[in-house]
Amino acid sequence: MELSGAEILVQFLKDEGVECVFGYPGGSVLHIYDELYKQEDIKHILVRHEQAAAHAADGYARTSGKAGVVLVTSGPGVTNAVTGIATAYMDSIPMVAITGQVPTAVIGSDAFQEVDTVGITRPCSKHNFLVKDVRELAVTLKKAFHLATTGRPGPVVVDIPKDVTDPNVKVPYSYPETVSMRSYNPKVRGNARQIRRAVELILSARRPVIYSGGGVILGRAASSLTELTRLLNIPITSTLMGLGGYPATDRQFLGMLGMHGTYEANMAMHECDVLIAVGARFDDRVTGKIEQFCPHAKIVHIDIDPASISKTVKVDVPIVGDVDSVLTEMLQFLRGTESSMNQAELQQWWELIDTWRATDCLAYDRDSELIKPQFVVEKLWEITGGGAFVSTDVGQHQMWAAQFYRFDNPSRFVTSGGLGTMGFGLPAAMGIQLANPESDVVCITGEGSIQMCIQELSTCFQYMLPLKIVNLNNRYLGMVRQWQEFFYGSRYSHSYMDALPDFVKLAESYGHVGVRIENPADVEDALRDAFALKERLVFLDFITDQTENVYPMIAAGKAHHEMEMSPKSVLI
Amino acid sequence: MRHIISLLIENEAGALSRVAGLFSARGYNIESLSVAPTEDASLSRMTLVTRGSEEIVEQITKQLNKLVDVVKLLDLTEGAHIEREMMLIKVQASDSSGRDEVKRLADIFRGNIIDVSNTSYVVELTGDSCKLDAFIRALGDTPILETVRCGSMGIPRGEKSLHV
Ligand SMILES: Cc1cc2nc3c(=O)[nH]c(=O)nc-3n(C[C@H](O)[C@H](O)[C@H](O)COP(=O)(O)OP(=O)(O)OC[C@H]3O[C@@H](n4cnc5c(N)ncnc54)[C@H](O)[C@@H]3O)c2cc1C
Ligand SMILES: Cc1ncc(C[n+]2csc(CCOP(=O)(O)OP(=O)(O)O)c2C)c(N)n1
Ligand SMILES: [Mg+2]
């Protein structure tokens, strides 16, 4: 089969099983867009800003198990997409970004809409390619998908000069079923000896705790993790990225750990004697003060990326491998061994944990006349039966979403953890809805963040995406305001969101339903009514208590046992 | 500690900047770096010299290994190895006593004088970095007009070797 570069690209995407591409056209990708026009297998979603294309592909990837695909033009198309690519990179999300480039003959001459895409995206992608010869196109695309989806996943950029997609230059094409790269062979199975050592260490523990992370979600290991945790009957906490990897409503779950983690989770970290880190990367939001991190613990760390191991915290039993594979082997070892944990010690450990739980660290004022943001998220959880897909933006609302929406299933919580990108929530929700057309998809956001990609309301209307947007409108860049209150003597420098739009009218002008809610008594009905409108996007503008803070909080540089507690929690 | 790390890397456009970019992005220091193709035209051999605590050097090797273009890596410091660096150094040599002195020094250091003008010599010298430093010190007051050093290269001793 002889095809042009543009034809090869589109045919390749079909052969690779791609159903959905998020993009925005421009000069350097017009040959490709012309091919997209001639077919119906691949759905192209026209966003309103390239950043949103990448975030939408990201949301799609996190909830479909497939790589998200982005298509943008050279120059500004690429630079707009970079924030989204970097966001995916920090959270290890599989994505292939196809970027147009100026023709090969003029590369390097400051041609119209030329940027050094490979140079710009090098530090924020897993790998990138510049395709200079149409005969290399298919195999390069295959490599890109292979790299994006295997090992530690991540975004891969394929930069394609316009002449490479020239409709008049045809070359033979056949779909490369497999690809091998001598320099890239991620390890899947863990070392058996290390796995045995880990199991022995765990069985000898008196105060063990599991610290699970995004790797459990990325590696689809929720069921083996749950089995192992239940078998051992030990406590488990999770990072922001790992939420849903173990059912949040289960007795053994301590809640999230870290800066805004629960008292019980952070205290368990501080007092544990064996820490089992599963697909988590010891991020500084999680560890707090490194010198005092888990001061009494021996640490087991399972991670597919050797560079994640002992990066910030030295570990005792490193296991490089895929979480699901390693956990499955651990389960086999455990079932085959006679020895078990000292149950009396474990019992005491649980009793200690129960005293920490009694602090009720997430307590808030339930009698307030103002709408408490926590209350909205709690009600949202109830009304959706805990089963919705939830994306968030970045700020206080993100933390309340993590604390109060209790995720029992993996891949339901979609948030920008590593880069913390405001503007992520709405476009990510679009991608989620496209991957899960029948499901409830909610975007929990703030009035600051939502304005960073608000233009996507137009995309939602075009493709009839019935998202539910829960805007926790505190008229503040709340997270910034909270830091200013705590650490800058309440000098609220530029954290006030002055001159806000009327979000109800704004939603309406985009063709959606908008509702403003000002009384706690109306919260529940408003949410119910919104979810009853199955076919419509509903923008719920909750006017919340402006002064509410996120608790508990570990200030930067403090250790796990040095938490600031909510005035409402029970002191011990 | 000083580490000399050897890499086999795909001989592709951009491979060098991935390595250089990694060092600058992560704030690792890089003392010298040398790179050239090998007998297998698809591969380049790169040698880099860096300094850092054991933890940092461990991260450096892991991060380098993680680069998709890096095929193989060896920290030469971990075993017996030979290290060489080449220097071309142009020195002033105008009067006869000066000329003799430079010639004598070059001989002692097993260097070669590879260019001669009325007022200067170019000396070619190989050895490990310490030897080259020692030569420069030995030149004393002799004015140095120009120094070019290629950065360290290394190879393991004996049967051990870095190949695909
Ligand atoms: C405002 C704000 C506040 C925050 N506060 C908190 C907080 O209080 N608590 C908190 O936890 N986070 C918080 N975060 C998020 C934080 O910044 C990090 O993003 C997060 O902690 C990282 O999660 P993780 O360790 O699970 O790693 P991820 O970024 O999810 O990384 C996954 C790890 O798993 C590995 N992996 C991937 N696939 C596999 C596989 N198949 N097998 C094995 N390993 C695999 C990867 O190599 C990597 O090491 C906050 C973020 C923001 C924006
Ligand atoms: C693109 C971007 N710019 C700046 C920040 C810094 N930042 C983190 S949270 C936050 C405030 C977010 O305000 P809002 O969306 O209203 O959420 P709230 O904290 O009030 O719930 C800011 C400015 C960021 N994370 N991302
Ligand atoms: Mg706000």
In whole angstroms, how far apart are the ends of chain B?
A: 28 Å
Principal-axis shape of chain A equals globular
Mean pLDDT of chain B: 95
Number of strands of chain B: 9
Tell me about the largest β-sheet of chain B: 5 strands, antiparallel
Strand count of chain A? 20
Main sheet properties of chain A: 6 strands, parallel
Range of strand content of chain A: 15-25%
Quick one: CATH class of the largest domain in chain A?
Alpha Beta
Q: How do the strands line up in the largest sheet of chain A?
A: 3-2-4-5-7-6
Could you say which structural class the secondary elements and strand pairing of chain B correspond to? alpha+beta
Low-pLDDT residue spans of chain A: none
Individual helix count of chain A = 20
Please describe what this structure looks like.
The complex is a heterodimer of chains A (572) and B (164). Helix content of chain A is 35%, strand content 16%. Chain A is α/β, with parallel strands linked by helices and 572 residues long. Chain A has three domains: 2-172, Thiamin diphosphate (ThDP)-binding fold, Pyr/PP domains (Rossmann fold), CATH 3.40.50.970; 192-357, Rossmann fold (3-Layer(aba) Sandwich); 373-543, 3-Layer(aba) Sandwich (Rossmann fold), CATH 3.40.50.970. In chain A, the strands form four sheets. Chain A has a six-stranded parallel β-sheet with strand order 3-2-4-5-7-6, sandwiched between helices. In chain A, helix 4 (76-90) links the parallel strand 4 (68-72) and strand 5. Chain B has helices at 15-25, 54-66, 96-108, 129-138; strands spanning 2-10, 29-37, 43-51, 70-75, 81-92, 112-116, 120-127, 144-149, 153-156. Helices cover 29% and strands 41% of the residues of chain B. Chain B has four helices and nine strands. In chain B, strand 6 and strand 7 form a beta hairpin. In chain B, the strands form two sheets. In chain B, strands 5, 6, 7, 8 and 9 form a five-stranded antiparallel β-sheet that branches. Chain B has a four-stranded antiparallel β-sheet with strand order 2-3-1-4, with helices on one face. Chain B is of the alpha+beta class and 164 residues long. The model of chain B has no long low-confidence stretch (mean pLDDT 95). The chains are: A alpha/beta (572), B alpha+beta (164). Bound molecules: flavin-adenine dinucleotide, thiamine diphosphate and magnesium ion.
